[in-house]
Structures are given as structure tokens and as C-alpha cells.
Specification:
The protein is mostly helical. The chain is built from ten helices and no strands. The longest helix has 25 residues. It is elongated. The termini are far apart. Keywords: DNA-binding, Transcription, Transcription regulation. This is Putative TetR family transcriptional regulator. GO terms for molecular function: DNA-binding transcription factor activity; transcription cis-regulatory region binding.
Length: about 210
């Protein structure tokens, strides 16, 4: 899942600085929230602000790089296994689970680009393509509803990611709505109980 703007290959020392900055960004966003200053991220990474801005022109570019890193590490391998597997429906829902787990773990990063759909396009393109392949295969195998389109799946996935706003970061409260989506998309409803319901955070909707 490549960023929309291609980055030139970096020297070893510059690549180490980029790694430190991205790791620091994830730590700082998790600890301080989506409004953390870039200066705090630079200090946490042990680099000067000039080094940070030389690699990332603004906070949005840094956030996208950090999100891209997480998708590449935690979602791409699941996609590869799903595409190589024989049960497309199971593969599709493993991919959705991986996306939701990554979204939960990186809730504050997502919060930093909330409402900026255009910014996320560059790192989700191949994810959507893979979902389309698995959907087509599952429909051919008779395990996914034939009246479900890729547009439906994109909207359902966006709805699921929105669930992150209603739960504590890192929570697995997304598992129940993800199971409800699976019930709606499979050709036959799975015979298993729904995951346990997780209460809304006490601060929600007050």
C-alpha cells in the first residue's frame, strides 16, 4: 500500500531517522492524542525539528506515513494469505479483522486525518482492490451474497472504521459490529454467537 506521493530511496542514516520519527509519531499520538505538536514528536525521536521537516513537510504527511507503515506490517501479510487461500469469504473477513485491529491500535492517528478521505486514498487503494478480488471469488464460490457490490463493501468497511470513534483505543469492541457485517454479507448466516458487547466509553454521548 504505497503512499500517494512516492518517496526517493534514502541513505542509511536518513532511513534510520525516518524510522525513529515514524515510531515516535505513533508513540506520541497514542500518548497525547491527534493534536500533539510536531516538535514533541521530533524531541521523542531524538532528532531536531529541521530533520523532521526535511522528511515530512507537515503533520498530515507524517500521519499518512505512520498509517501506511502499520497497514504494511499488519494488514498486507493477511491480504497475501487471504488471496492465496481457497476460501475467499474467510479470507475477506480475516482482512477486515486485520484492518479493524490496526484501526483500533492507531485510533489517534486516524483522528488526525478525520474527514480527509482524499488523504487516505493513497494508502488504501490496494486494500480496496484486494477486497474486490475476494468479493468476486466468494460470490463465485457461493459463500458471499451475489447482490453485494464492491461499493457496498467500501461503505461497510468505512462504517466499521467509524466504530473506532465509539470505543477506547486498542479495544476489541469492533468485533461485534464486524460480526454483524459478516452476517449480512455471507450467503448463509454463520451459526455462532455474536462476540460480547462492549459498553460505550463513559464519556461518549454525554
Amino acid at each position: 500500500m504505497n503512499l500517494a506521493v512516492e518517496r526517493k530511496p534514502l541513505r542509511a542514516d536518513a532511513a534510520r531517522n525516518v524510522d525513529k520519527i515514524i515510531n515516535a509519531a505513533r508513540e506520541c499520538f497514542r500518548q497525547y492524542g491527534p493534536d500533539v505538536p510536531l516538535q514533541t514528536i521530533a524531541a521523542t525521536a531524538g532528532v531536531g525539528p529541521a530533520t523532521l521537516f526535511r522528511n515530512f513537510s507537515d503533520k498530515e504527511q507524517l500521519v499518512l506515513a505512520a498509517l501506511n507503515r502499520q497497514l504494511r506490517l499488519h494488514v498486507d501479510p493477511v491480504i497475501d494469505v487471504a488471496l492465496a487461500g481457497t476460501d475467499a469469504a474467510d479470507g475477506l473477513f480475516r482482512v477486515i479483522d486485520a484492518v479493524m485491529s490496526a484501526a483500533s491500535d492507531n485510533a489517534n492517528l486516524l483522528g488526525a486525518v478525520a474527514g480527509r478521505r482524499d488523504l487516505l486514498t493513497g494508502i488504501t487503494g490496494s486494500l480496496i482492490e484486494s477486497v474486490g478480488v475476494l468479493l468476486d471469488r466468494g460470490q463465485d464460490q457461493g459463500t458471499l451474497r451475489v447482490d453485494i457490490s464492491l461499493t457496498d463493501m467500501v461503505r461497510l468497511l468505512a462504517m466499521l472504521i467509524g466504530v473506532v470513534d465509539t470505543m477506547e483505543p486498542g479495544s476489541d469492541a469492533w468485533r461485534r459490529p464486524a460480526a454483524l457485517v459478516e452476517d449480512a454479507v455471507r450467503a448463509e448466516r454463520p451459526t455462532r454467537p455474536l462476540p460480547a458487547q462492549v459498553p460505550l466509553p463513559s464519556s461518549q454521548f454525554e
